[in-house]
Write a structure and sequence with these properties.
The chain is an alpha/beta fold and 547 residues long. It contains 17 helices and 18 strands.
C-alpha cells in the first residue's frame, strides 16, 4: 500500500497535508494519534467513503474486511441468525453463481478481455474462501470467541457487546486480504482477546488496526503508523506500540536539543547585531560585520525547526452541585427478562452508599448494560423496584452514545438552562471543541469526538450519581488516565460497567456486582464481592467459579 501526498481538509481545518507512507503486503500496522487526528478518516479514504482533496492511495486488488467502531447491522441482516451472518462472509454459492454467469458470457464473447479479468477475479475470491477448511475455521472462530450460545439467535435480539463480537468474528472469517479494524477489542473478554491477538498476529494478509489498547497493539503489530495532528503528516515506525513510543520520545528529545542549540545560536547573533547597531558610525568594520551577521540571522530564522507543541488535553470538572442522601440508590428484588428470553436477574437486590464506586461485571449478554438501563428508567423491571434518595440527581453515559442527537450540532447537544452560552462554550473548550467547531453536526464527528461530546454533556449536569457504560471505549490511553484520576476524586456516587482493568484500577472501585452466567445452575443469583484486580481479570468466567 502506497500513500502519496495525501491532502484533506474539513472546511478550513487541515487533516492531512502532504502525508505519505508505504506498507508491505503482510504488515500488521497500528494506526495511532490523538483523538481527531484522522485515524478513522484514513479508513474511510481507503474504503472510498471519503474523497481526498489531493494525493492518492494505491491498494493492491484485495478484498477488504472492515470492522467499524460503531456496529450498525443493516436491515437485510437484522433477522439473520448469528451462524448465518458470520458464514455469509464467505459467500461461496453467490460467487459460484457469478462465475457461471461470466462463463456463459464468455461462450458468446470468447475474445473479451474484460470477461476473462472478471472470471479471474471471481476465481481468486473463491480460492480465498478456502472451501476445504471453511467449516473448521468457522467453528474455531465461534468457539474461541465464546459465541456458541448465540449461533441460533437473531442479530436483532443481541446486546451491543454481543453484536460487536459477532461482527468481529464475521470479519475474521471473511479471510480478506486487507483488514481494517477500528477499536476491535472494545467488547472482548480476556479469553476472546487472547485468541484474536494471536489470530491477527499470524494472519496471512495485511492488518491495519486502530486501538487504544496498548497491550493488544504490542502483541499484534510489527509497524506503527503515526498520524501527527500538529503537523498533519504521517510516519511509519518499525516495531510495535511500545517501540514506537520509545522512538517517538527519542525523536522529540533530539528535536528539543536541536532547537535549543539553534535558539542559543540565534540569541548570540541577535546580541551581536544589536551591539553593531549601537556602535559609532566611525567603526565601519564592526558595522559591516553586523550587517553580514544580520543576513546570516535571517537565514537562521528561516531554517529554525518548529517545536511540536504538546497537543491540548481534555480537562474535567465533575463536582456535583449538591449532596445526595446516605443511600442514593437501592435496588429491591429486581427481576427482568426480554420477551421470549430467560431471566437475566431474579430478585436482585443491592444498595449503594454515598460516595461509593461500584462496578458491574459479567459475560457479554449477562445484562450489564440492561441493568443500567433499568436503573435510569429506560427499561421497566418485571418485578421489583429501583429507589433513589430524595436528593439523588442522575447522569447516564450510554455505551453506544444514544444520549446524543446526531442531527444537532455539538453545542445544541450540550446546552442547558443552567449555563450561559459563554459558560457552555468554556466547558466545550475543556473538551477540545473551540470557536466554530462547536457548530459541527454530531453526525460527522469521529467516534472519539462523539464520546467527548457525550462525556461533556453528562458532566455538565453535575449529578451526584453518575452511571457509566464503557466510558473509555473511544478514548486514547492518556485521556483515559485523565478521566480515571478525575473520577477517583469525584465525591459523588459512581456505578459503572467497564472492560478496561487499568481504568477501573485508576478510579478506586470498592465493590463489584458479579452477574450470573447464562449457564449457571438455578437459582441464577448475582453476588457482590469486595473489589480486587484479580477478580476483574477473571470476571469472564467468575460465574462458573464462584456461583
Amino acid at each position: 500500500m502506497n500513500a502519496d501526498n495525501l491532502n484533506l481538509h474539513f472546511g478550513a481545518t487541515p487533516l492531512y497535508q502532504d502525508a505519505s507512507f508505504h506498507l508491505e503486503a503482510r504488515d500488521k500496522v497500528g494506526i495511532v494519534g490523538v483523538n481527531g487526528a484522522g485515524k478513522s478518516t484514513l479508513f474511510k479514504v481507503i474504503l472510498g467513503i471519503e474523497k481526498l482533496d489531493e494525493g492518492t492511495i494505491t491498494i493492491p486488488a484485495l478484498r477488504i474486511g472492515f470492522l467499524p467502531q460503531e456496529i450498525k447491522i443493516t436491515p437485510e441482516h437484522e433477522n439473520d441468525t448469528v451462524w448465518e451472518y458470520i458464514s455469509s462472509a464467505r459467500p461461496v454459492d453467490e460467487l459460484q453463481e457469478k462465475l457461471n454467469a461470466e462463463y456463459e458470457k464468455l461462450a458468446k464473447y470468447p475474445e473479451s478481455k474484460a470477461i476473462l479479468d472478471r472470471i479471474n477475479q471471481i476465481q481468486d475470491d473463491i480460492d480465498a474462501c478456502d472451501i476445504g477448511n471453511m467449516d473448521v475455521e468457522l467453528i474455531k472462530i465461534i468457539e474461541k470467541m465464546n459465541l456458541q450460545e448465540l449461533v441460533d439467535k437473531r442479530l436483532v435480539d443481541l446486546s451491543g457487546g454481543q453484536k460487536s463480537k459477532v461482527a468481529f468474528a464475521r470479519v475474521l472469517f471473511g479471510n480478506a486480504g486487507l483488514l481494517l479494524l477500528d477499536e476491535p477489542t472494545n467488547h472482548l473478554d480476556v479469553e476472546a482477546k487472547r485468541f484474536v491477538s494471536n489470530y491477527l498476529r499470524n494472519y496471512r494478509g495485511m492488518v491495519l488496526v486502530i486501538s487504544h489498547d496498548a497491550e493488544f497493539l504490542d502483541i499484534v503489530t510489527n509497524k506503527t503508523l503515526f498520524i501527527n495532528k500538529v503537523t498533519h503528516k504521517t510516519k511509519v515506525y518499525k516495531g510495535n506500540y511500545s517501540t514506537f513510543r520509545k522512538q517517538r520520545a527519542n525523536e522529540l528529545a533530539e528535536q528539543e536539543k536541536r532547537i535549543g542549540e539553534q535558539e542559543k545560536e540565534i540569541k548570540r547573533m541577535e546580541e551581536f547585531v544589536m551591539r553593531t547597531k549601537a556602535a559609532k558610525r566611525s567603526n565601519t568594520a564592526f558595522i559591516r560585520q553586523g550587517q553580514v551577521r544580520e543576513r546570516q540571522l535571517e537565514k537562521k530564522y528561516e531554517r529554525l525547526e518548529v517545536r511540536e507543541r504538546e497537543y491540548q488535553k481534555v480537562q474535567l470538572n465533575i463536582s456535583p452541585n449538591k449532596q445526595s442522601g446516605r443511600t442514593p440508590l437501592e435496588v429491591q428484588n429486581l427481576s427482568f427478562a426480554y420477551p421470549g428470553g430467560q431471566k437475566l436477574y431474579d430478585k436482585l437486590s443491592f444498595s449503594l452508599t454515598r460516595g461509593e464506586k461500584f462496578l458491574v461485571v459479567g459475560e457479554n449478554g449477562a445484562g450489564k448494560s440492561t441493568l443500567l438501563k433499568l436503573i435510569v428508567g429506560q427499561l421497566t423491571p418485571d418485578e421489583g423496584f429501583v429507589i433513589f434518595s430524595q436528593n439523588t440527581t442522575i447522569a447516564y453515559y450510554a455505551q453506544e452514545l444514544e444520549i446524543l442527537n446526531e442531527k444537532e450540532s455539538i453545542i445544541e447537544n450540550v446546552k442547558s438552562y443552567d449555563y450561559t452560552e459563554t459558560e457552555t462554550r468554556s466547558m466545550l473548550s475543556n473538551f477540545l471543541f473551540k470557536d466554530e467547531e462547536v457548530y459541527r453536526q454530531v453526525a460527522v464527528l469521529s467516534p472519539g469526538e462523539k464520546a467527548r461530546v457525550a462525556l461533556c454533556k453528562i458532566l455538565m449536569q453535575r449529578a451526584n450519581l453518575i452511571i457509566l457504560d464503557e466510558p473509555t471505549n473511544h478514548f486514547d490511553p492518556e485521556t483515559q488516565k485523565i478521566i480515571g484520576s478525575n473520577f477517583q476524586d469525584y465525591d459523588g456516587t459512581l456505578i459503572m460497567v467497564s472492560h478496561n482493568p487499568s481504568f477501573v484500577n485508576e478510579i478506586g472501585i470498592s465493590r463489584m456486582l458479579i452477574l450470573p452466567s447464562k449457564d449457571a445452575p438455578e437459582p441464577r443469583m448475582a453476588i457482590i464481592k469486595n473489589y480486587s484486580s484479580e477478580l476483574l481479570d477473571y470476571y469472564y468466567y467468575l460465574n462458573s467459579e464462584l456461583i
